[in-house]
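Hi V.,

You were right to ask for the full record rather than a summary. Here it is.
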Amino acid sequence: MKKYVFTFSLLFLILIIPFALADDLDTGFREDIENLYQYESLTADVTITGTFILSKEKSTSRSSEITSKVALFPKQNFYQNILEQTTSSNPSTTKVENENNELIFTWNNPSFTTYNYQVQTSLKTTEENHRLTKDITYPITLTQTQINENNLNDYLAVTDTIDWDNTDIQAKAIELSQGKDNLFEVSFALASWVEENINYDFTTLNAQSSIKASKVLESKSGVCDEMTSLFIAMARSLGIPAKFISGLTYTNSDLFSEPWQAHGWAEVYFPGHGWVAFDPTFGEYGYVDATHIPMKQSSDPTDYSTLVRWLGTDIDFEDQGLDFDTQITNYGNTREQKYDLEANILSETVQFGSYNLISAVLEDNTGTYQAATLELFAPEEVEILTRYKQSEIIRHEGQTVIYWLIKVDENLQDGFTYTFPFVIRTESGELYESSFKATSENQFYEKNEIEEFIPSEETLLALEAIDITCDYNKQIQINEEQPITCQIKNIQTATINGLTICHEKDCETKDIEVDQTISFDSTINLENPGWKTQTITFENNDFSYTAVFPVEALDSPKLTIEIDSPNIVNFQDQFEITLTAIQESFAPAQHVSIDLEIGTGTYNWQIEEEFSGEEVIMLELDSSSLAKTNTITINYSWEDNQGNSYQEQTKIDLNVTPNTTIDKLKMLINKLSIWLTSF
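Predicted structure:
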């Protein structure tokens, strides 16, 4: 509700406008660091420092040689170009060797002191996007020759941590892969389940040894290494080779004090294509962003990062581990969005306590298999009932939709219009913003009404057979016939026979050849205003699918104005008139104009924004300019969304009582003045 206060004596207008909530949405980004996810490549200087202390246990302690074998440092690969790499140490080493992708630091006749050694690397890292353009069938079949040539045995093995022979792991993997015949979809199902169901828990870092994948599944908690281990274990249990990748990555999460952290993710072997990256912690499936700096690959996350050996007697050794420092020196181009995104709200205006639905329509623009991970952020007055962070596969040359069921707080202040912004954030950090409104008088939707618009698993299966696009007006006038036209494409590899399509009483039965597109035409005609659902069914012997479409049926906008005014006032007294504009239709009014005439005064208010609910206008007047009898005339006009005009008039009488003879004379003069201005 808006309140307008007009004081006649001061000619001053005070406007209390509807307030917007949550202008500073917390989108989970740290404000003190930049967003590096938006770049397709980065150039960085990475310094790895190892420290250990060699000391005597006895006065007779002796040492002839000490070596530190370092497996964890940046290496050259297709997505990571090593520009320069140097080593250093203090005390100086006798020699440094590179053997089997490991650096070996050697000290002969070492002193008993603190040792520091470094690997300094200048590198360019690129987004690792594998761009799968074809189906790779599941289950996969690997010949022994393929296994040997690609060194896959280690990445199919049971290890101390990757205990995929556990029956619970096997059962969960089978459950998640059930009914899927595509390797990308199976890998996505495993990785996204881990991301959605394993709680990121720092307490697991205190463990004395790495947590087995089976224990991670049991406890439903872990950090990146544990989440990745469980994903790898489930993949291997299905006969899918998977390896563990150790390295560094960047985070702008406020969970961490520093942006660059040690990290673990996975790669999955796709026959005929190669190794494909999956990071269940970050929600990156089929790719990893350019902030991922790989350093080591292994069959088990417990494989050593450094290994120190020494020759000597009575030596006390203390390893202080590795420290990492990463500095970005150059930025590549901004990442191209791999899909087109359209953010939608089901109803733009709802009642307090109502449910609503936010959706993101994603469409492939690369011709590749890909997965999108989106996050929804909204003000605290809007409860997100589904998972705020969601991931879905976008088939190449296809489309998918991600839904968020939301509910507006029911304990908001009556009489006000609330504007709620919301933000959808992509995995690259791109933001899509929109908003909706809530009042105490607007349409209320129950949870089950909104859930009708979220497709079921059965529906999604049907959509693997047909691709449906329907064109219609989301806003229609009641009792006006509007067309709805649907294009139905067969995306299967076989003919669809006997597909019956029905909307209301309009039904057609057709056969659709492979890649053929047919049209279905019908009409929409609604008698009552409000949000309505239109359903079109698609059914044959193989599947049944019901498409649900929201339609806003509009009546003609209708306003009334109620006047609250005293019937009698004393001459020269102050008095107040309150006008309440009330929406009596479902359709909102636009360009509302209100004129009030009393005595010789005329006052006007314009409401340019879309009017819905109630508006309150308060006018303070001085009766010294009025006659004995007065008419208050209210003329008000408005338009509908098609530009049609409407107008109404309301009148009431106001009497003024004189206190003295002089008052009577003044009131007579006022009457004459009012009469003259009427011409």
